[in-house]
Design a protein that fits this description.
disordered C terminus, T2SS/T3SS_dom, T2SS-T3SS_pil_N, mainly beta, Bact_Secretion_Sys_Channel, disordered N terminus
């Protein structure tokens, strides 16, 4: 005997009396496949009566029996499951393969309305949503994925390609300054009030008297941030740093240049690693290594208007032999760490300074004449005590640049390309150690 299984696609939760949109007839014994959108329903009818309906995976779909000849399927989560029908004799009558998907058509419409100039394609993939196509920037791709996740949480796979991929070069300068020397000289490297340096090197929102000698004693304002913009203003800052470095007031710890793709993370470490014994159980000891030195990790994202969103995490650490721990007979030193983590938005060539990372060191030294220095009352006449305290401030200056590769290699210059070594006669007779620029070696 033939029996028909009928499917009625419904857009919302409805009873079996709803109007049918489409009909799919199957013969008895044939396996039926159908699909339903998540949070949507599908009413199924059969010619023959059944007494029991079972769902293989109730987390994906749920079934509500409407009568002895119809039932309703509700899509709960993306995926595939089976609905099995049984008769009075508990015999399997039919199996319906149900695929629960997401509202791809509605997502396509939303993405088109949000990004009319972008070519974003949407298609279902393995119980989720796959995005493909070309977009203009990383921010557009991130927003498209965010919109898709509203339709399919945790089930979005992005294959979006960036048409104009951006590379960002980051110039970073780690400067450590002695605050004692700065206080003695009354040097103020930057404005006390801070501000933005414009293209002619003037600080907006700062008093002229706060600059140079006799102003504040802080390298950077107490808010620990300052944006420096414009070529002349930034160059003026570099000149001040170089001048103070020649006087021994400050020193440059590291000056790395890093390049990263927009949206990717780049890291840098100038230092080393020291071993730490770690007990792994059963009396076994393994060695792990801890990094120290000058480190930096940054993630740039180029926005639509050319602004660079920059996540920066600089760190300066050094071994602390006065704070040690003994593990298994091995002395492990501690670490002194100065770390910052911030997110800023800058334009190409602007600089951002992070300061206020202070470190205090104190020492107490006692010198005395043997035996005599320990005598009561008069022992102080034969001994001396010296207290020393040093305070240093770490300043980190960050400058991002949009980097574009060049096809002509001749445009890339080597700073030593035009330098030649002196001839033997010039070296021994004239005492020259450099041959100058643009001269060939003799």
């Amino acid at each position: 005997m033939k029996r028909a299984l009928t499917l009625i696609a419904l857009a919302t939760l409805m009873t079996s009396t709803a109007d049918a949109r489409s009909w799919v007839d199957t013969k008895t014994g044939e396996r039926t496949s159908t699909s339903v959108t998540k949070d949507d329903t599908l009413v199924m009818r059969t010619d023959n009566a059944f007494t029991q309906v079972r769902v293989a995976n109730a987390d994906i779909a749920d079934v509500v029996v409407l009568s002895d000849r119809s039932f309703q399927v509700l899509g709960k989560a993306g995926g595939k499951t089976n609905v099995m029908l049984y008769d009075r004799d508990n015999q399997l009558v039919d199996i319906v393969d149900v695929t629960v998907g997401f509202d791809v058509a509605s997502l396509k419409k939303t993405l088109f309305e949000t990004f009319p100039n972008e070519a974003v394609e949407v298609r279902p993939l393995a119980g989720g949503i796959y995005l493909s196509g070309d977009v203009s920037s990383v921010s557009v791709a991130e927003r498209a994925v965010s919109i898709a996740e509203a339709y399919a949480p945790a089930r979005v796979t992005s294959g979006l390609a960036i048409r104009d991929s951006h590379q960002v070069m980051l110039e970073v300068r780690f400067v450590e300054a002695s605050r004692d020397s700065i206080k003695r000289l009354g040097v103020n490297l930057l404005s006390e009030r801070g501000g933005v340096i414009d293209s002619v090197g003037n600080i907006m929102g700062a008093n002229p008297g706060d600059f140079g000698i006799g102003g504040s004693t802080s390298l950077v304002n107490s808010t620990a941030s300052l944006i420096l913009g414009g070529g002349i203003g930034t160059a003026s800052l570099d000149v001040r740093i170089d001048a103070l470095e020649e006087k021994g007031i400050i020193r440059t710890l590291a000056e790395p240049n890093l390049v990263s793709m927009s949206g990717e993370t780049a890291s840098f470490l100038a230092g080393g690693e020291f071993p730490i014994p770690v007990s792994s159980g059963l009396g076994e000891v393994t060695i792990e290594y801890r990094k120290f030195g000058v480190g930096l990790a940054f993630t740039p994202t180029v926005l639509d208007n050319g602004v660079i969103n920059l996540k920066v995490a600089p760190e300066v650490s050094q071994l602390d032999v006065q704070n040690t721990v003994e593990i298994g007979g091995v002395t492990v030193p501690g670490l002194r760490v100065r770390r910052a983590n911030t997110t800023v938005e800058l334009r190409n060539g602007q600089s951002f300074a992070i300061a206020g990372l202070l470190q205090n060191e104190s020492a107490n030294t006692r010198e005395q004449v043997p035996w005599l220095g320990k005598l009561p009352i008069i022992g102080s006449l034969f001994s001396s005590t010296r207290y020393q305290s040093a305070e240093t401030e770490l300043v980190i200056i960050v400058t991002p640049h949009l980097a574009r590769p060049v096809s002509d290699r001749s445009q890339l210059s080597d700073p030593l390309a035009n330098v030649s070594l002196p001839s033997e006669a010039s070296a021994f007779l004239g005492g020259k150690i450099e041959g100058g620029f643009g001269h060939a070696m003799e």
